[in-house]
């Protein structure tokens, strides 16, 4: 049984019906009248200070520690599906693009692409890289906060459309305690996996406490590499993948840990140091070829992904007079190594253009196997520092002021290799890049993104119920890209070594053909008016802006791309009803996205980023938590997003360098729906808790709906790649617990719905459109989880 677009009405009707039926159960409510139905408060730090979620005039979805455990959240995919305003594209674990409120133009997510439009933070420190945020194992987390809309005033450059914050549990002095959780699972159409996770909190003295967390997770594969052949028309040679055939070959292993030390220097000053690291090793490919059958692909070379990172952070808090001071600094290091089959690219270009004739051995004989494969190594380093002062929270006039600086460095190495390629010393000119055996194409570059800013917000209580808040951020950014990209001189006289203008400035490159940088400065603002109707209800209106810095195109002949800006007009509400048992929050908004950055694969498969035209987004988002009885809770969230071009996208720039909008056949005409984000995304969860003898029992069910969406903005590419259909998934779980131990049985993706999370081709769609790959969600998984507290 599969649920798709036809369930949209039924999904929401069932939600309303279930609510009505449960609302008509006064006997159950009366029976539990002596127990409270009030919903627990959630404390967030979205405005850089501790506040009740219901007092913050920002559209926030917060998943607290208890909610994360109840929903079985363990990684990025698990929590994103519970955040309706967030959409994403993914190619493999740890390689996901994150978007909010429809601010997405598609593109290929290349390492020389635009900076992200959504900032992801671990505690106080940003953890986003060009190829996506760190995929952190979610265990012993205090909460996940999703701040929708521009957060440029307090969070800066890559928080153009929103911010996601992962807040860890800190060391405390409550005593020595801990927990261990063990899980075993089985995936339909795949193998078996499991995890072991644990933490311990250790007070060392009256002023020193530590917390240590560790995890090991084995994720089962579910995609099969099935037998296949390719016949290259130029040489007539046929290759096969007999040595690579394997079932469930996309498995992964994740190992990581976190250690934090909290020192109370005196009664007002505290320092918290932490070190967190993770190693993830993945095999195979996380997409399948529909032409080969469900969850099947035919690839010819080994495919692996190693993602290793660590982050060291220091946070110091104290008081200067009656103002709170916070310093937050971090150093992050991430290393990725990939090996990827690139045979499709070789095959389709050989079919259309006879590329295979160019790839010869040392004697000039065309290679029997001209297939390419990629070996890549990316190293990211980020230094970030922020210092800020906050005035007393109970004053009528409140202020937050601060300074921010970060430097991101990305060492890029991408080798496109063909085994047996003609090298130096043969009877024909070498086809290799100098110094790189069997390497047809080399990218060896260093990218650096610097960002500095001064920011501040002032809030003034005009009356006891009316508050005006204004914020401003002044920023300066610089992007540089230096090094080498291209072929050796034996193949191309112009693209690669033939275009070099100096010796190598990046190690392991033959020479330098790109050395450019661009600087920008500007400002973003936020203006908010909040009115508290009473202690339980408030409404607000916001006018805010966000930005994303520009940068350098790695094709040196192309001009740099400029910053793009987002303007947000928003009205929202935060309300609590029925003596605290019903919480209903929401917002409606309109966005204007100006000269947005759009990346495509240009000639020779090089990423090109250009500023496109204008787009507008209108939408609404809402979330509800209703504790009908002390034992029964309904919760849900939904987002409606209407995002489209407000001008033609022609695909080229006007003579003055601005995006051209006047063309007879635009690649995407005015009114074209923006890609990636569905018009409707929502989820609903019902949880019932009950006694089982001396134990506490529960049953829980949840449903997630994601509407149809496209992966590209351009109409031709849409026709080739196809639309991603809507899907609905359901999860069920039940368990029992004592004060010491717990046991849970869970089934995720109950109906084994096959969702499309991303669709792509290995090369330009017009060439490789005959072979489109789909990255699916995980098939149905049954798991048993046991936990012990000590």
Question: Please, could you describe this protein's structure?
Answer:
The chain is mostly beta strands and 790 residues long. The chain has eight helices and 41 strands. The strands form nine sheets. The protein has a 22-stranded antiparallel beta barrel. β37 and β38 (741-748) form a beta hairpin. The chain is globular, with a radius of gyration of 27 Å. The protein starts with 7 loop residues before the first helix and ends with a strand. The relative contact order is 0.13. Residues 1-33 have low confidence and may be disordered.
With helices defined by DSSP (H or I, 4 residues minimum), what is the helix count? Answer: 8
Low-confidence blocks of residues: 1-33
Termini separation (Å)? 43 Å
Counting DSSP E segments of at least 2 residues, the number of strands comes to 41
| Silhouette | globular
**Helical amount:** under 10%
**Strand share of the residues?**
over 45%
| Secondary-structure-derived class | mainly beta
* Rg, Cα atoms, Å: 27 Å
**Main sheet properties:** 22 strands, antiparallel, barrel
In round numbers, the mean pLDDT is 90
Secondary-structure map:
Elements: H1 8-23, H2 26-31, E1 43-44, E2 51-52, E3 60-64, H3 65-70, H4 76-80, E4 86-92, E5 95-100, E6 118-122, E7 125-126, E8 128-129, E9 132-133, E10 141-148, H5 152-155, E11 162-168, E12 177-187, E13 192-203, E14 208-219, E15 224-225, E16 229-231, E17 238-240, E18 252-264, E19 270-283, E20 296-297, E21 304-320, E22 323-341, H6 343-353, E23 373-390, E24 397-417, E25 439-461, E26 466-487, E27 514-534, E28 537-548, E29 564-577, E30 582-594, E31 597-601, E32 607-611, E33 614-629, E34 632-645, E35 680-692, E36 695-706, H7 715-721, E37 727-737, E38 741-748, E39 756-760, H8 765-768, E40 773-776, E41 781-789
Parallel strand pairs: 6-11, 15-20
Antiparallel strand pairs: 1-2, 3-10, 4-5, 6-7, 8-9, 10-11, 12-13, 12-41, 13-14, 14-18, 16-17, 18-19, 19-21, 21-22, 22-23, 23-24, 24-25, 25-26, 26-27, 27-28, 28-29, 29-30, 30-33, 31-32, 33-34, 34-35, 35-36, 36-37, 37-38, 38-41, 39-40
